[in-house]
Structures are given as structure tokens and as C-alpha cells.
Design goal:
With 171 residues, this protein is of the alpha+beta class. The protein is built from four helices and twelve strands. The radius of gyration is 15 Å and the shape is globular.
């Protein structure tokens, strides 16, 4: 069975193009956080500052998830506004340009995974590594990924529960 996605809390299914267009419209309207949920319990979160975006994919509630990265990016950017009004700053290497974020949204909704060539940091491994004092998060290309079925109901505030939230600085 094909995984279906919708805006968090809504029943209407979206195609990848519709989901990407919705994110684009919301960013244009200064609604910088968008959550999608799948019928398998996975959550796709996009938090933007208008130019770049933190794109996080979680297997379900409480999962630290994984997120798209730009390992060659330098510096940091602010203006990432969560739905609770909190404004965050992220390292640019932990985010991707908005045009790439829209491509990731399209691909995840249509195929279940990000497009090939997008680097992806697995925060699940990072969280375990941080507790044991071992290696940093694993970064790998998205192509050829396997996806596991998520469980549980969508959290009320997914971005506050993902591994990415532990690497931001708040203003």
C-alpha cells in the first residue's frame, strides 16, 4: 500500500506538488512552520526563514528523526519561527535552500523518501552517540534509503520533539 500524506490535522490527501505548493504559499504568507503526517504515522516538518529551511522527517511521535543538510554551507541564519512564536537560529549546514526543501517535500510525499543527492543527517544515531560520548551524527545521501513504519499518533508540536531542536539556539 502506498503511503499517503496530509497537512497535520486535516484529512485531505496531498500529492507531492500540492504539498510543496502549500509550503511555498505558507512561507510567502509568513507562516513558516508546516507539518505533514502520513497514514503510517510519520511526520514531515518544514521550518523556514523564507530563504532556507530545516526539513525533518520523523518515524512518529518522540522520534528524533533525520533531516536534510547542506554540509558545505557556512554560517548560521535566524528567523525560523515555530508555531508557538519561538524564533530560532540554525547553522546553515543543518538547513537547505528553500528550493531544495520544496523538492524534498515533493519527493517524500510522492515516493516516501527524499530525492537522490540530498544529504541526510540521521538524528536517531546522534542522540544515542551523544549519550555514550561517541561519534557525531551520520550524514548520508538520501538515495537507496529504506523506510520503516512509524507508530503512535502525531505529536502536538513535532519540531519541539525532534533531534534538530537540540542543535538550535534561541533568540
Amino acid at each position: 500500500m502506498t503511503e499517503t500524506w496530509s497537512l497535520l490535522g486535516e484529512r485531505r490527501e496531498a500529492t507531492g506538488s500540492e504539498a510543496a505548493e502549500l509550503v511555498s504559499r505558507r512561507v510567502h504568507d509568513h507562516l513558516l512552520t508546516t507539518y505533514f503526517e502520513s497514514d503510517r504515522g510519520r511526520i514531515l516538518t518544514v521550518v523556514s526563514n523564507g530563504t532556507r529551511a530545516m526539513v525533518v522527517l520523523m518515524d512518529g511521535e518522540g522520534d528524533p528523526g533525520e533531516h536534510a543538510v547542506s554540509t558545505d554551507a557556512v554560517g548560521s541564519s535566524g528567523g525560523y519561527v515555530l508555531e508557538n512564536g519561538q524564533e530560532d537560529t540554525y547553522d546553515d549546514a543543518e538547513t537547505i535552500p528553500m528550493v531544495d526543501a520544496l523538492s524534498v517535500v515533493r519527493s517524500v510525499v510522492d515516493t516516501g523518501g527524499p530525492p537522490g543527492g540530498v544529504l541526510w543527517s540521521v538524528d536517531r544515531r546522534h542522540r544515542r552517540a551523544a549519550s555514550t560520548g561517541s561519534v557525531a551524527p551520520r550524514v548520508r545521501p538520501a538515495a537507496g534509503r529504506g523506510w520503516s513504519r512509524g507508530s503512535g499518533s502525531p505529536p502536538r508540536s513535532p519540531m519541539m520533539r525532534c533531534g534538530a531542536s537540540s542543535r538550535h539556539t534561541s533568540r
